[in-house]
Each structure stands twice: as structure tokens, then as C-alpha cells.
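User: Here's a chain of 278 residues. Predict its fold as C-alpha cells.
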Amino acid sequence: MVSDLDVYLFDLRGYLLMEGALTGDEVQALNDCLDEIPALKPGEWYGYVQGHAYGDVTSGINYQQIYEAGEPFEDLIDHPSWFEHVKLFIGAEGTFDHHHGPMFIDECLANFREPGEAIGLHSGGFPPIARNQFRYHGGRFMCGQVNVLMALTDIGPGDGGTMLIPGSHKSNFRHPYYDEQRMGKDRSVEGTVGAIEVFMKAGDALVFVDGISHGSAKRVNAGTRRIAVYRYGPSWGNFRHGYQPSPELLERLTPQRRRIVQPQVLLPREPQVKRGEG
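Assistant: Prediction complete.
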């Protein structure tokens, strides 16, 4: 269950660090799945998993639709370490928004980050965006998107850890960093006042509202940082990049997982006979 302290800290800071959310065996199984996938470039497919990059590859390569990679990634869909937390922070239970299910995954990916790669600071409470809004109203959280970032390798100093500005999900002002970035000044996330770097052990999970300002430090160490990210929102949402789950995945998922991956079944299910025909 979600503790009162977790609720307080998530509301205050916009994130929670869950140490040991995944067991060593789970981390090994996830990494084994990734090792079975040939190296993908943006636009290349391996089954229903696609190589992808945000703009360019300086932020690393993403394997989108990673829950298609095998059972270890399917088990993350409603993993007990964070499922109740995410459900509470989205806040759909007991409302019309829960009609098709407790939540929806609009994007899930594995990310590989090499030396020299990073992703810039983005998001924040200003300007407000409906998709990644943070809201608490009438005794209920109503977050438009809650991310679960899982470390599949140890992430320490020099490894390109996730960076956050605690409390920025409630900010009413744009951080000056964004203006300096637009003006072409050489600014790194590491130099941003108020940002902290989150170090993680393999198996830790970082749960954060997407409205918090976040990015990553630049990786300088040898080797590859591996993470997985599952982005959850209300069941009425839609896929961020237009991917669709495969029929094979939907067939083998549990009923609860199927409702999270595809809350609604589009109608009509079968071709309809026009009036006056047949």
C-alpha cells in the first residue's frame, strides 16, 4: 500500500525513489531480453519493437514498445512495487475516468545511453501542458502522466543519471535555463540551479510526474546506461507515437494488463452490413 510519507513526498517533490523495486533475478531477466535484440537504429524494427530517438541519437537509442520484447517486460505493466502508487497519483479510481481501466501506458521503452550522450532539461510546471499536468483537487490526485523509470544497470557519478528539479511540477514560472538554452548559450543540465542528480542501483525505480523538470547528466564513464521507462496516464489517453500493441501480446496478457495496454476495443469489431444490403 501507499504510505502517508510517500504521498507527502510525491506531492512535495514530484517524485519518489523506490530502492530495490525489482529483484536481482528480474533485472537479469530484463537484461537478457535486451541482449537478444539485435542492435537497432532509429526506424528499424525487431518484431514489434522499434528503434527510436528523440530528435537525434545524442540522447541515446530507445527501443519503443518494449513490453513486446518478452514476459519480463510484460511483468512490469502492473508491477506490485509501483502499481498502487501510480494508480493513486493518476486518480481515476472511483470516477468516470476509470470506466475502461485504472490507467493506460501511452509509451514504454528501453533506453541505452553511451559516453557523451545526455538529454536536456525539459518539462516543468510552466507553461502548463494538459498531458503532463500535476493536480490535486477535492482530495484526489489527478496527474496526466506518471513515469516509472527503472535502472537496469547501476547509475552512479559519471553514468548519466536522471536529473530533476524537485518541486518544479508546481512552478508558476519558467526556469531561466530554458531562455538561456534558446539563446544558444552552452548550458548543461548539471549546471542548472536547483537540479539534482539521482543515483540508482540496478533494480531501483524512480516514480515521477512528467510535469517535473527533468533530463539527464551527460554520461562520461565507459559502458552503457540501461533503463526502462513506462509512462502511465488516464485510460482515455492515446499512444504518444501511434504504436499499437500486437494481437499476440494482447492475447497472452492477463485481463488487468490488457486493460492497461489497450483500455478500449474500437468499434465496430466486425464489418457491418449497410442498411438495405444482405
